Predict the 3D structure of the following.
Amino acid sequence: MERFFQAQSVAVVGVSNSPTNMGRFMAANLLEFRYEGSIYLVGPKGGAFLGHKIYPSVLDIPEPVDLATILIPAAAVPEVLRQCGEKGIRRVILQSAGFRELGEDRRKIEQEVLDLLNVYQMRLIGPNCIGIINRHNGLAVPFMPLQAEGPPGRIAVISQSGGVGAMLIDTLAGEGLGLGKFASIGNKLNVNEADLLDYLLEDNQTALIFCYLEGIAQGRRLMEVAAGSGKPIILHKSNRGGAGAIIARSHSASLSSDHQVVSAALRQCGIVQVFEQREAAECLKAFSLPGMQGNRLAVISRSGGHAVIAADAADEFGFTLPPYPAQTIDRVREQSRAKVIQLHNPMDLGDLFDLQLYRELAEMTLAREDIDGLLFIHNYQGIFDGEPSRKLIADLAQIGSRSEKPLAICVFTPEAQLIQNRRAVHFPIFTDPREAVRALARNRDRGKFRTLPFATRRPEDLKPELVRAELGQITPAPTQLSPLQLARILTAYGIPLVPWAPVQSEDEAVATAQRFGFPVAAKTGDPLILHKSDIGGVFLNLPDAAAVRQAYRKLAAVGGPAVLVEKMAEPGLEWFIGGRQDNQFGAVVITGLGGIYVEIFRETAIRIAPIDDEEAGHLLDECRGAGLLSGVRGQPEWDRDVLTKVLVRISWLLHDFPQIRELDLNPVRLFPAGEGCCVLDWRATAESAL
Amino acid sequence: MERFFQAQSVAVVGVSNSPTNMGRFMAANLLEFRYEGSIYLVGPKGGAFLGHKIYPSVLDIPEPVDLATILIPAAAVPEVLRQCGEKGIRRVILQSAGFRELGEDRRKIEQEVLDLLNVYQMRLIGPNCIGIINRHNGLAVPFMPLQAEGPPGRIAVISQSGGVGAMLIDTLAGEGLGLGKFASIGNKLNVNEADLLDYLLEDNQTALIFCYLEGIAQGRRLMEVAAGSGKPIILHKSNRGGAGAIIARSHSASLSSDHQVVSAALRQCGIVQVFEQREAAECLKAFSLPGMQGNRLAVISRSGGHAVIAADAADEFGFTLPPYPAQTIDRVREQSRAKVIQLHNPMDLGDLFDLQLYRELAEMTLAREDIDGLLFIHNYQGIFDGEPSRKLIADLAQIGSRSEKPLAICVFTPEAQLIQNRRAVHFPIFTDPREAVRALARNRDRGKFRTLPFATRRPEDLKPELVRAELGQITPAPTQLSPLQLARILTAYGIPLVPWAPVQSEDEAVATAQRFGFPVAAKTGDPLILHKSDIGGVFLNLPDAAAVRQAYRKLAAVGGPAVLVEKMAEPGLEWFIGGRQDNQFGAVVITGLGGIYVEIFRETAIRIAPIDDEEAGHLLDECRGAGLLSGVRGQPEWDRDVLTKVLVRISWLLHDFPQIRELDLNPVRLFPAGEGCCVLDWRATAESAL
C-alpha cells in the first residue's frame, strides 16, 4: 500500500478541456495540496491544462510513472489498464463507476480488469471510488475540488463511499482535527479495507483510523489485523439490511442478525463501532487525547448549570469526582469577587473573571496524583471577553498537548467563535459536557480487549474425525440432522447430553423408560418440527409405563413413529447455547438465559469462534441472565465452569465444521456448581462441505 | 406571567458607571433588541448611561413602572424590593445571586423577600438568574451582552441555569431556529416552571417550548399543565443525583430512583425528555416541522453512501420506504448523465447535476398520497456548485414551509457554507441522515399520549375508611407495617391475598395448616427481615403436620415466635407490584416480572398514580416480561386483566394514603386467564400523616 501513498509520480487518466471534465479537478487538487511528485495528464484528445501537456495515452509519457488514476467510461477501462501495465505502472486508482453496482451484467468488465491485474501484477483501488489523499506529500486525487485546510495530522480515513468520505474530511476540518491520509475504496475489487488497515496500522504518520464500510470483505482477517494493533480504529458499518433479512429457521439465526454479529466481532477485536458521523467525530476527538488511566475525573466550569450536567454525566459514565485540595480552594476563594461560587468537584468558577487563574487551576489539577483526567468547561459570548477567552482556550490546548493525562476542553460560545478557536488550536474542542464526559469514558474503556481475537489452543479431547465421519454422508442442500446423528457429533466434542434413546414402538418406549428409571420425557422425533411444545410434541414427567404408552400413541399421531425417550433431568437453571456460520465472519457462538426466556427477552451475547475459557467467561458476563448463575435468593450457585467449557467446545465444533450451518442447544440444563450440566434438546442444520 | 413579558416600562436597578458594572449590559441589550417600552436606569450613585439618566432609587422615577430588574448584593435586596412595592411595581426579576444556593444561613433574606412579595402582591422571577427576553417587543434584560440574531421565532426557552440558557440561545441562533421568549428562573423562589409553562402554552406567539431544570418544583402540576396542551415541550432535567442516592430499603425504592420517576412522569404527560444540548437541538428541529402522520418515508440523496445510512436509520426507527412511481423514475432517468444511479427508495441521484430537477422531485414526492414525509440529502463542497446548492436549499426550505408533511433537509458541506445556509433559510437543517430520520421518528411519535395524565374515576368498592382506621395508630417515624395490618389494608382495597394466618405456637401452626389443607408454606413473621429466603426464613411445600412443626421450630429460632402459615398457591406466573411516595411527583406505582427476576433484570415500569385500566395496560406493555403474559411455548395465557385491576387499586391506595411510604407485593402469583391472582408476600413502610 505504501506505493500508493508515497508515489513519486502520478498519471491522471481522463483529462480533457471540456468544462465539465472531472479529471481536471484531480489535477487542480494535486496543485492545491502541493504534491511533491511529478504530474502527468492523459486524455485521448490531448491539449494542455494548468501548464501540463495532456498526453494521448500513458504510453506517451516519457518518464516512468508510479501511480495512475483512471476516470473514464467503464467500457474503456480494460484497454487503458492494459496500457498502464505495458507502461510498467503497478498501482492504479480506478475511479470510474458503472461496474457491478449497476447489475450482474457488468461483471464481465470486472473480470477483464481482474485478469489484467493478474497479468501485470498490479494493485488497484476502486472502482467506483473518489481516490486517495496523502496530506504529508500532497498526493490528492479526488475528482471534486477540495481545499487543503490546516496542517497535516495523524488521522487516517478509509471510506467505501466517496460522498461519505468527502464529508468526513469536511467534518475533520470543521473540528480542527488533522487529516493525514484518506482512501475511498468503492467496490473493493482488489484492494480492500484490511489491506489498507494493515498498512496504516504500521504507518508512523498515522495514529488513529476511521473507516466507513458498507460491507466487510474479509471479516476474520480484519479482526486479526485490528486486534494486533495499539492504534484506535473507529468503524461505521452501514448497510445493516434489517428490512430485507431472511426469515430465520433457528433461534441461533434469529438471535444473530448480520449487524449483531458485526457488533460482536468489532468488540472482540477492539474496534470502536459508531452509527453516525457526529459519533465518529466524538470518537476521533476522544482518541486524539492521551489515554485516561483511571476513573478519577476533575471538572472545572465557568457555569454552574454546565457543572451540574457534567456531574450527571460523570455518574452516568462511571467516573468518580475527588474533592479539590484545600490549597486549590483557597487559591480560588481569594480571587472570587462576589463569593458566590461552589468549590467542590465539579468546581463552579461562577463570577471569577481572572482567566490567568483558570490556566493555573488547569495545570494544578492535571498535576495531581489523585486525578486521571480533567474536563474544563468555558463559556463566553465573544463580545465581552472574546480576546482573553480565545487566549485561554489556546493556552488550555497547549497544556493539554503537553499533558500525559487527557484534558477535555468544552466551550460554549457562538458558532463563529467556535470555528475561530478550532482553526487556531488544532486540539479537540467539545461543545457539550455530556459529550466530553462520554468521550473520556470511551477513551478510558478502549484497550480493554485481547490482542488475539480468537482462541489458539483447542481442548485436547475433541474428536473431529468422528464428526467428519458423521458429516460425510450429508447432502449438498441444507438438511436437519437427525437427533441420533447430532448426538454422536456433540458427544465427539465432549458435550454432555441427557440420557436418551430413539424408540420405534410402545414396547420399546416402555423398556427404554424402565432402563433410564422413571420419570421420563417423551418427544416427537420428527426433526422438522421446530417448536415441539407448540403442537403437543412434548410430554414431561411421565411417572410410569402406562403414561409412557399413552404419550407414545399421541406422539406417533403427531409426528410419526420416531419418538425420543429421555430421562427427566434433575431441576436446574436453563441456558441456551447456539451458533451459526456467518458469511462475513465464519462461525459464531451465541448464548443466553434459556427456555422460554430466549424468546421473550432475546438477551443473548455473541462471539466469533473459536473462543477460549476466558473469552467464554466474558461472553457469559455480557448476558443479562448472568446474575442468575451465581445463585440468588435461596437458589444454589450454578455450574458456570461447565457452561464455559461447553461454549468453548461448541465454538470449536462450528469453527472446525462450517458444514454445520445452524445449531441450537436449548435448553442446556445447568446443575449446582460442580455437578455439571446436560443438554435436553438439540437441533442442527447441515449441508455438505462447500 | 404576561405582565412580565409584555411590560411597557422597565426599571433596571443596579446600574453604575463602573466599567465592570453588569447592569449596563442590561441597558445595552434593551437597546440592541430595540425594546418598544420605556427604560429607566437606577443606581445609588446616579449619573447617566447611553443617554439615560441613572435615578438613585425607583421611587425617583417620575412615571409608573411595570417591571423592575434587580442586580445588587443580596443583603441590599429587601430594601430595594420594598421601594419597588411602594412605587407600585408588581413584577420583579431578581438576578442577584447569594441566596440559598450558598447555604442555609441565607434563607433569612429569602424569607424577607417572600414576606415583601406577599405584602405588595408582587410576582418575582429569580433570584440567581439572568433574566428574561421577549424577541417580539425587544424586552431583553440578561446581564451579559447579547446580539439579536435573525427574526423573532416561535420557540420559548425556560432555563433554571443562566449559563445553560444563554448557550441554548447561541445554539438556536447557530441552527437558524427562531427564539421568541426566554426566561432564566434561577432559585424559583416565587415564579416556577409550571407558572411559565402555563402562560407559554396559552401564548399564541409560542409554538414549541424547551426547559432546562435542575429540580422540579410542582411535579403533578407540571404534568397537568403539560398534558393539557398540544404544544411540544422538550425538557432536560439535570441533577439526577445518582452518586448520592440513599440506600433503598425496599424493591420499590431501589427500582424507582428519582430520575426513573422523572422519566416516567414526563412520558406520562407527553413531555419529550433529552439529556444533552444537541439532543435538545435535534428535538427543536424535529418539532419545528409539521407532524408526520404515518410511517411512509421517501429519501432522496445526492450521495449513495448517505442513502445507505438513511436506509439503515429508516429501518432502525420503524419507517417503511415505498418505491418511487414509474413517472418519477422516468423523469430522473432521462436527465441522468452516466446512467450510474440507483432509482429505488432511497433514491441516489448520483451524477445528476440538474438541481432544478431536485426541486421538482421534492415537490412531486411530497404531493404523493402514499408518502408521509421526505428526507432530502444534499452535499456540495462550495467551490464547485455553491451558488446553485444554496439556491436549492433555500427553495427546499420554502417547499418545506408550505408543506403539510415534514420535509427534513440534510446538508453535507463545509461548516462556513452550513452557517451561511442556516442564516439564509431559517428552516431546520440536519447534518446527518440518522439524526434527520431520528428527528422524523420523534416527530411521528409525539402526541401518542393522554391529555389527562391521571385517572379520574376510582373503582367503586374501595374502602378508604378501613385503611384510615388501620393507619390511625402508626407512629410519626417510618415503621414496617405488620403483615396482619397490611393484609387488612390491602383487603380494604380489594387486593386478593393467599389464604394465610399468623400463628404463635407449633400447635396453632399445625391447626392452621390443617384448616387450609396441605401443602402449606411457613415464613418468619418478623417484619424487619427483608429477604426472608436469604436467612432460611421461608419453608415451602410442607406436606404434613410433622414438617410444619419442624419448620415452626426453625423459624422461631431465626425470627422469633411470630410465624405466618400460608396455603401453597397453585403454580403460576410470578409478577411484582410495588410503589412509593416520590418527593416531586407523589405516589408512584411500579411493576415488572416478579420473583428473582425483579432483582436480576430490574426491568420494571413506572407510572405516577392514580392510573386507570387503560394506563395500567400501557404500563404492563412497557415491561419486558409482558410477552410472557400471553403464554408462550405451551404455557397458558395468564390473567392479565386481574393484574391490571390490582395495579389500578394499588395506585389509588398509594395516592389516597401518602402515609404508606413504600409497598412491595412480591410475588403476585398470576393464574391462567379468568382464574385471577393472589399476593404471596406483602410488605410496606408507613409513617403518620405529614
User: Anything to note?
Assistant: Residues 402 and 434 of chain A are 24 Å apart (CA to CA). Chain A touches chain B through 85 residues (CB under 8 Å). Confidence is low (pLDDT under 50) at residues 243-248 of chain A.
